[in-house]
């Protein structure tokens, strides 16, 4: 599994650093999450409530690890109407070639991964024939525009620039931010006042760094050039915490590279202006029938528990 799988944005002519106050404009990582977005429904499961601190600036004592949480963006009170599915005869999904665990080529040479299995579940729910074609990520938008496919399911981050070119379904996951610490320093809840004077590492030039500088003003922020340097600093104890993309951190924490040194501290941060609107399925502009059908099927899959089963199959440590 790749440790950097988050959400992806194809090359666009717009600048990579949209202006946003109160923090300096965040510089997006290589596979960026957008800096502006509309709010989404929060995860259906959240870390347990922390014990009240004994003083305003004192963190609560460490608690047991939070149970696995699964993201959910569907409100049971807002059930989507069932569209006329009989008008759909086939859905040609486009996905990326190499972005594990979301997209990769399986041992049998066929498409595999979280996105691929989700596409198959959607087809099963809609009761329609589907094909899944793997292409290089940067070619997906053009392939959709030239009718070589009907929908892109490839961890594509929703951005204002892409919304001008394609329509998106409701988000089916997002990449929150989280803190990680050494296992002997885990905190069940993190607030700005709890990190006063603490050394916090972050990758330079990212939206995570911008968020820390805006919201955790009393922390001692240490910036590192890349994820390897950041995580090594935490392993060596140079910093008390690191802050970054929760999905890639989850893979690192659960992998051999971490040497079981570290764990998540506190819960997820999902401020959409910094950490994105989420990941959706892209369809051609104006293809409302397909978009609404996929939204209906996504809700049904979540409602039946199939989305939860699929998520737990691929993510042994939840980023939420």
Describe the 3D structure.
With 320 residues, this protein is α/β, with parallel strands linked by helices. The chain is 25% helix and 17% strand. It is built from nine helices and twelve strands. It has helices spanning 114-126, 140-145, 160-163, 207-215, 227-236, 246-254, 272-275, 288-303, 306-314; strands at 90-96, 104-105, 111-112, 129-135, 151-152, 166-168, 177-182, 199-203, 220-224, 241-245, 262-269, 282-284. A five-stranded mixed sheet has the order 4-1-5-12-6. Strand 8, helix 4 and strand 9 (220-224) form a beta-alpha-beta unit. Mean pLDDT is 81; it is low at 11-56 and 60-67.
Structural class: alpha/beta
Unreliable stretches, pLDDT < 50, 5 or more residues?
Answer: 11-56, 60-67
User: Sheet with the most strands?
Assistant: 5 strands, mixed
The sequence of SSEs as H and E is EEEHEHEHEEEHEHEHEHEHH
Count of separate DSSP helical elements: 9
Q: What is the terminal-to-terminal distance?
A: 18 Å
Features:
single chain, 320 residues, alpha/beta, five-stranded mixed sheet, elongated
